[in-house]
Amino acid sequence: MDDWPDDFRAFRAERERELTEPYGWLTLRGFHWLSDEPSAIPGLPGRWYADADQVAAHVEAAPGLTRGGAPIGGTHTLTVDEYARVPWVDHGEVRVELLRRGGRLAIRLRAATSPERDGFAGVPTYPYDPGWRLTATYTPYAGPREVEVETIRPDVHQVIRPFGDVTFAVAGEEQRLAVNKGKYGWGVEFRDPTNGAETETWRQLHFEPPAPGSDRVVLDFNRALNMWCAFTDFATCPAPVPGNAVTVPVRAGELRWR
To answer: For labelling alongside 9, which of 32, 69, 106, 166 has CA 20 to 30 A away?
Structure first.
């Protein structure tokens, strides 16, 4: 770490701060699809269900369930957009969030902390290598595209909307990756030959869009990250767009965590 550039050191510090925040990705305790039949959820009071058409979710009031610190009364209803998640109610130190994936509503349980969070000692990475800081060419698509992809969960598919490609060369081999936009701006999800042994099943990389009038972007694979599914069994991370694979081993960025 002594040879890390200052901006990369700050990037890693922010990455690990996000991972270890209360109610973060190291503290998830459960994932439950909601049906239209009011049902109990293990570890929670009340009965939980969704409309038959999955428009909104409902929870019947029960002792210990609060929202904003106040007990809820009657039946509390909430909805959420596709691919989004919102905090719903609390039960002691457990926070219940509502999410929608593949048109279905689910709740996910987060805690203020966990043994994984308390014992977190950082995510291992490859040594920093300036040779993996690459210049690529961005080419926008002529029109919108939609691609259905698998996710880390076999019962969920998602629709990705890539809007262009980045092309670059590694070890004399041309590479092409489809670009999409997410919470952190422009990015790619990609596979490479290190997956499964040295690294997770796939990883992601975020980068800045090109400057006005330019088609050049910088892909710093030292900043390649594990997706949330590397840290919890209760994530719904989308897989890369088919064909988003670097053909040579990308020995840069984060290694397997578990």
So the answer is: 166
Burial (CB < 10 A; 0-12, 13-18, 19+), residue 35, is: middle
Q: What is the Cα Rg of the chain in Å? A: 20
Going from N- to C-terminal start, the domains of the chain cover 28-111, 121-230
Residues 141, 147, 153, 156, CA torsion sign:
positive
Tokens of residue 181, six digits: 């936009």
Residue range 153-192, pLDDT digits in tens? 999 999 999 999 999 999 999 999 999 997 788 999 999 9
How many residues are recorded in the chain? 258
CB 218 within 8 Å of CB 136: yes
How many Å apart are CA 108 and CA 49, to the nearest integer?
13
pTM: 0.92
